[in-house]
Amino acid sequence: MIMSELYGSMVFDDRVMSKRLPEETYKEFKKCCALDLPLSLEVANVIANEMKEWAVEKGVTHFTHWFQPMTGITAEKHDSFISPTKSGDVIMELSGKELIKGEPDASSFPSGGLRSTFEARGYTAWDPTSNAFIKDGILCIPTAFCSYNGDALDKKTPLLRSMEAVNKQGVRLLRLFGRKTERLNVTVGSEQEYFLVDTATFEKRKDLFYTGRTLFGARPPKGQELDDHYFGAIKPRVVKYMKELDEELWKVGILAKTKHNEVAPAQHEFAPIFTSVNVASDQNQLTMELMKKVASKHGMTCLLHEKPFNGVNGSGKHNNWSLCTNFGHNLFDPGSSPEDNAQFLLILAAVIAAVDKHQDLLRISVASAGNDHRLGAHEAPPAIVSMFLGDELTGIMQAIADGRSFSRRANCEVKLGVHVLPQFAMDRSDRNRTSPFAFTGNKFEFRMPGSAQSITGVNVVLNTMIAEQFEEFADELEKADDLQAGISKIIKRVMNEHGRIIFNGNNYSDEWVEEAKKRGLLNLKSTMDALPYLTSPKNIKLFESQHVFTERELRSRQEVYMEAYCRLVNIEAMTMLDMTTMEILPSAIKYKGELVKTAKNSIKVGVDAKAETDAANTVAGLVNEANVKVAALKKALNNAHGFSTTLECGNCFRDEVIPAMDDLRKTCDELELNVAKENWPFPNYGDLLFSVH
Ligand code: ADP
Ligand code: MG
After folding, report:
1. How far from 150 is each of 121, 127, 160, 167, 377, CA to CA, in Å?
2. Position 410 pLDDT exceeds 70
């Protein structure tokens, strides 16, 4: 199929709407979307009918309200278009009411106490700003999901609220610069890392199957040390996969753009072209789903877990975030006139202040049991939040703060609104790859999110904190007599109070951990260290003042995330126990028996049996050790189950269960290196990492 026919062929997008809807309806729809007005039922009816006609022409019989509950994955319930007529026939129908609102029985989705099962009713409400699309012959209508009394039960609702907050406060700020901005949008492009393994190999590993990561596995002789995979030639089987994935993504209107091999063997990366944050987050969910689906067609399994293999890089998701006016002006573009520079530097100051004030929230937004293995390990940003501006930009900000000249390139006093600032376009080669939050020329790249995570949460935090900062600045500057002086004052204050968050050095070094401590920055190592901060008075105030979360909603989320952590670690621990007692120990014991038999036979005929005896003794020792560690892990699990609050339970998983798991793994990995390959019960790291040819 040619590209022009392929691209967007499965999306009910603007092109389709402008062509198919009556002109009046189309105009009304566009107006409502642009100004956030509710649609009349009349207009909704016309759109619903046309949407259905379009879908039916493509062989579709069912529709679903597609939403993102707090599990972080998407949910759907399928209804057919079929409707009986009086004459006993059936017609295909989709009413405006059905398009706008759905009522799934939602009792089994996590709500963190917001809704008990007896009031199971939840509503899904159409989000007309994200296009409906066809997936597996089903018309998917993106929706928000909330409870009977309006509490957000999903990830989209707070995202839409946070976009509104940015818009409201951002437009206020831009007005001060005489801009006629009507709407300020948030744009996001998310780069996605993943692993591909051969499915036949994958299926032999219970740990991968149940938890998405390996819980055992000795290091293979070759990992990523030769750096021969990064940007290397892509294997033919993977090329075919990527080609089909691109096509599937293009069909649903996702602008798949970049693909390459990543650092670890079997690791790859995908990036789309950026778009509005709401659409980007829906598209990222859909992308992850399609990645898995297309892989299975090629006999491969796509691993989205943050740390599928110890000893080689894990996978992240870079969230490239920017702000853009309805006239297409990117607020993180430095610009070339003095006025532009003043505005740019003020906005930069807002980001600096917000990131420093809300380090805890940024850390929480990427907290998950899976991502804990990655943050702070050597390939990923550390758990300490800081930001990279580059030496030049930092120098300019500092010079303004100090009221002195910036001497790097132009030896002049930096006075806002008077000079064109020295050129500070970022040199691409000079980029800092280790910073968790890096300015990359015209956007910020937040590199802490985990590969399996929805990007919704991180963007809710980014949007809300910048909205709060814009509000603070706008309040102040609206009262100022002299705008430029007011901006200088703000920049000075921000650099003094929050400049500590800027770090342009190597974030992976031990010195940075020390230095960050001296600066008073947070270092929240694990999910359970971070989550308690979510409901601090500062954070409740932030989210309530920007109308993004009520305190109730925030508390419910805290509960949901802690519960998810406990459940996940519990599954991992149980899987380890199963694998050890049912696979590893029986195999090792059998192997020991074989060695003993061989030794006995040798001795019988007078042949030296030292090697067999030594090997048998080593295996015996490790088997005994593993046995003791199984008991220790069981005890730790038991302790964890004994607590009544999720906080205590989660802390016990962190402090007792995970260390017991690590300990058991150590012995089993050692055992693996002492048992013949053919006696080992499942494929090893070498088999997995090099399973796709
Ligand atoms: P990198 O900076 O990682 O080398 P790119 O410059 O191609 O690579 O950008 C990476 C991602 O950032 C892509 O998904 C791209 O669409 C996105 N991106 C680029 N500009 C913006 C922007 N203004 N807002 C949001 N995302 C953007
Ligand atoms: Mg990047």
Report:
1. 11, 15, 14, 22, 41
2. no
Q: Which residues surround ligand 2, an ion (CB under 5 A)?
A: 318
pLDDT of residue 415: 54
Threshold 0.90, pTM exceeds = yes
CA gap 194, 267 in Å, rounded = 6
- d(CA 245, ligand 1 centre) in Å: 20
- Nearest to residue 459, comparing CAs of 467, 553, 67? 467
What is the Cα–Cα distance from 10 to 281, expressed in whole angstroms?
18
Q: Which of 443, 446, 455 to mutate to test the pocket of ligand 1 (most atoms within 8 A of CB)?
A: 443
Cα 516 from Cα 38, distance rounded (Å):
48
Give the number of other Cβ atoms within 10 Å of residue 366's Cβ: 30
**What pLDDT digit, counting tens, does each position of 222-260 carry?**
777 777 777 778 889 999 999 999 999 999 999 988 888
How far is the C-alpha of 76 from the C-alpha of 668, rounded, in Å? 41
Helix axes of 456-479 and 537-545: crossing angle, nearest 10 degrees: 80
CA 583 to chain centre: 34
Q: Which atom of ligand 1 is nearest to the CA of 271?
A: 14
**Eight-class DSSP state of 272:** E
Strand partners, 269: 193, 260
Cβ–ligand 1 contact at 325 (below 6 Å): no
**What is the whole-number distance in angstroms between the Cα of residue 543 and the centre of ligand 1?**
28
Residue from 559, 569, 564, 555 nearest 652 by CA: 569
Ligand 1 near 274 CB (within 6 A): yes
pLDDT of 428 strictly over 50: no
Which among 254, 257, 274, 284 is the best mutation to test ligand 1's pocket, defined by most ligand atoms within 8 Å of the CB?
A: 274
